[in-house]
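Q: A reviewer asked whether we had any structural model of the full assembly, not just the individual parts. We don't, so I'm hoping you can provide one. Inputs are below.
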Amino acid sequence: MTVARHGPDRFLADLAAAGVPGHREGPAIVYTVVPATGSLAGDEIDTAVSVNELQLWPTVVPHWLHFPEAITFPHTNTDSTDCLPGWLRHSRDVGQWDTSAAPARVWLAHVRGVLGVATKQKQE
Amino acid sequence: MTYSVAMTDAVAEQARQHLLRPDGQEDVCLATYTVSTGKHRTTYLVTSLVLPEAGDRLIHGNASFTGPYLLRGAAHAANQDCGLVMLHSHPCGTGWQRLSSTDYDTELSYAHIAHQYTGGPLLGMTLAGTDDTWSARIWEPGETLPHWAEAVRVVGPMLKVSWNDDLRPPPPRTAAQIRTVSAWPAYQDSIARLRVLVVGVGSVGLDVAQRLAATGITDIGVMDYDIVKELNRDRMIGATRSDARRHRRKVDVAYRQMLIAATAQRPQFRRYPMSISTPEGLAHALDYDVIVSCVDRPWPRSVLNTLAYADLIPVIDGGLTLAVFPDGHMRSGSWRAHTLVPGRPCMLCIRQLNPTDIQLDRQGLLDDPNYIERSGREPDGGAPNVAAYSAAVSAALLAQFVSLIVHPGRRGVPLPLRYLLSTHSLQVITETTGQFCQYELDTAIGDGRTPLVLPETTQPDGPRRPAFGLRWHRGGVGSSPSAAIRWLHSVFGRALVGRGRKGGEFTDTVSRDAES
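A: Here is a predicted structure for the entire assembly that you could use as a starting point for your response.
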């Protein structure tokens, strides 16, 4: 089986090669990361990206990071486009992209870095 | 439709090493190709060699393929979803090579096998050993005569083009070009034949386009969807108050200024009032041999970054930044210039592209005031820029062009450059290609490139889209027919002034003889 050159399937394959399995769920691809720093360090946090934003992966990378509403940030710009019920997407600039590392590893480092300032609200 | 062939300098050198034997005999080998489909030109991109193993070919002064070698090569090409190339050398040949009767019989007899295995036509190529000139032809299935390519590009830090003089003869040199020709007598015939596209004809692009026209280049295209506004006039040298008042298209102003500056006897300049980020814009761009990128938005720059590698069309890019202290004093200024070719890092690797900015630009969010306000970003337009400094960027881009084409000192384009105005220092950017750079991993992939473009109607371009629709009807240099064209018609008749428009492309051919 050949892996697509670009797109959501390539993203899933890249995640799997980096040891992080993901799956499609509605308009998004959902996977789990473990932040290394901050109040969530060591916790398994569900996150997602929009399938729409992955059409050109890895040439163009997503901008919006999806998290359950319980994950909050001190400063953020959110909406619910392409999100699963109970999730929000947060506008986050990836900054300069390191082409010397595998794209999925650079992406996961970005997501973990963003979560470094996040907190998790207790569910009622 | 015209045809051309391109390959990286690495592939060309590997082929040369194999085909030009120390014993002076001919040799043969196979290779694979992909296709890059432009609006009016199809380019076959030679991707990799399939070198012969023991017993795969016969060397007897001449050289011949064996059947098993050809079948192995065709199967390999099919597995790679590629077409098949048959290459051979004429060790004592000079210039574009014709087919001998033996060459003709060989290629014709194998063309149908190549097509059956790969689904594509056979590409035949010959290397002339005396001057390293490549020639190429395409054998469509069922046809007994090949379609000759008009040129073969070898692309790297030095661009080397082999020309088919029958299909693309050198334009005559003119009296206005004497000083230009004296600078590079061995290169003028090649420079004048290049098809050069300038994308973005604002302050820098307008200057570059005029200087390319003055250099004697016959085929220059200018692409820009925008119109001239009064606030552009402090940088667009050549644009007039009338241009701004009449909201003339920037491509029309560039076209007019290029005609004024042209030294070629019969310039054929083309205007594309469209974005490079549309399928139409991309298709036109794929017809060119060199592109000068004078755009600053991330999305069009990513499209150009893609085709520099995927389609082997060198892209010369650059820009400037000016920074101001809160008290009104100038803080700093810089310009950058870099040429995107295999062997030099792409714009992502040298940190001139931010991949999430490409995503935002493509989604139209960089033009969305609500998003800009909520995200805290600075608006994309309106950065400081002055004519007194932007000319430095034009000069830097044109110096890259000269290095790419003429190779002063037998060197090609330098590593990416950055100039700092405050210290007047020129820096060489040492960032190199990343192992996982997708742009460069996709080198010579042709039509398999990442599909970055979007149709015009679905582009979330904010204010651009409705304005673009209106611009077709504005009075401009390109409106039909302009006062100048009407005057030429009245004096010389219509036969001497050809003019037409096809699907947004304006092509004008004005006879210099007629004008004088």
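A: Points you may want to mention in the reply: Residues 271 and 370 of chain B are 34 Å apart (CA to CA). The first strand of chain B starts at residue 2 and ends at 8.
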